[in-house]
Specification:
Structural class: alpha/beta
CATH topology of the largest domain: D-Maltodextrin-Binding Protein, domain 2
Number of domains: 3
Order of helices and strands: HHHEEHEHEHEEEHEHEEEHE
Radius of gyration: 31 Å
Largest sheet: 8 strands, mixed
CATH class of the largest domain: Alpha Beta
Distance between the termini: 62 Å
Helix content: 25-40%
């Protein structure tokens, strides 16, 4: 059974005349009659009552047309949806990102992009590093916004933002009145660290490898906002980006004198996998000057 047979059948059912249907379909009347006869033979039952070139659905045809009408509509809807997804002006950008970036960076990027392309839709997924890495690798997202250190050999990478990192202490801490600090001055201080599923951890640990800083034993938190809460309670210190979601009362943000202490955030995707035209346009948008500075 072929799709064209079903389309021919529905046209004949609608017009109830073989010659009119053949003209509407742009085929000869004998070719149309042959296609309908072949369809009836495959089904094993007649579908029309015939009176010369005039035809009318019989009981079998009426039942069949009800289901075929739905099937053809579903096919049309599927084709339309794919066309919409494939059109960079009306398509969908599937994007995953780290939780902390949902406070400021992601809303600003989505808003600025939709000012230029208002019909494009975003399907957004946020989570910890493990969640969104899996989302990208399994093909549920075309793009991901995360830390540079999470990239692999088969990933493409574009910098979006370089966020300065600060030493963060409680307002009650003995270092709270310092205007700047080096990491070496913090050796032995209780340090509030991050578990492996946080995107910032790899950045901080790679920076520590090049300093004389010795981590003091304290706590490991699941996410950045928990780190900020532990610091506020004066349970230790940490190194954090000064982003909106972490700006709690009673925290003191001290600039780091050592060079290279920033968090590089960017857009990554799998170069060995097809991504939608809408996603490719978003990549080009980031490449063409949408790098943000703080």
């Amino acid at each position: 059974m072929e799709l064209t047979q079903l389309e021919y059948f529905m046209t004949v059912a609608r017009l109830e005349h073989m010659t009119m249907a053949s003209k509407a379909l742009g085929i000869t009347q004998p070719a149309l009659s042959h296609a309908i006869a072949k369809l009836e033979n495959e089904i094993g039952a007649p579908l029309f009552e015939r009176n010369g070139r005039n035809v009318k659905l019989n009981r079998n045809g009426a039942m069949f047309s009800k289901w075929i009408g739905k099937a053809l509509q579903n096919i049309e809807n599927g084709v339309k949806e794919i066309e919409e997804w494939s059109n960079p002006d009306t398509g969908v950008i599937t994007l995953s990102y780290l939780n902390i970036l949902g406070v400021d960076l992601i809303p600003n990027l989505v808003r600025s992009y939709q000012l230029d392309y208002p019909k494009v839709r975003f399907e957004l997924t946020q989570g910890n590093l493990g969640d969104i890495d899996a989302h990208l690798e399994q093909g549920h997202s075309d793009l991901m916004i995360t830390s540079k250190e999470s990239t692999l050999d088969n990933h493409k990478w574009i910098i979006i933002q370089q966020v300065p990192l600060y030493i963060v202490v409680s307002s009650q801490h003995h270092l709270a009145n310092r205007s700047a600090l080096s990491l070496a001055e913090l050796s032995g201080e209780p340090f509030i660290g991050l578990k492996n599923n946080c995107g910032l951890k790899a950045t901080i640990m790679s920076r520590f490898q090049h300093t004389g800083f010795v981590l003091g034993s304290a706590y490991e938190a699941e996410d950045l906002i928990t780190v900020a809460g532990f610091i506020k309670a004066n349970l230790g210190i940490s190194v954090l980006p000064k982003t909106m979601g972490l700006m709690l009362d009673e925290l003191v943000w001290i600039p780091i004198t050592d060079e290279g202490w920033y968090w590089e955030i960017g857009l990554k995707w799998r170069e060995d996998r097809h991504i939608s035209p809408a996603a490719r346009r978003f990549v080009a948008y980031i490449e063409n000057g949408q790098r943000l500075t703080v």
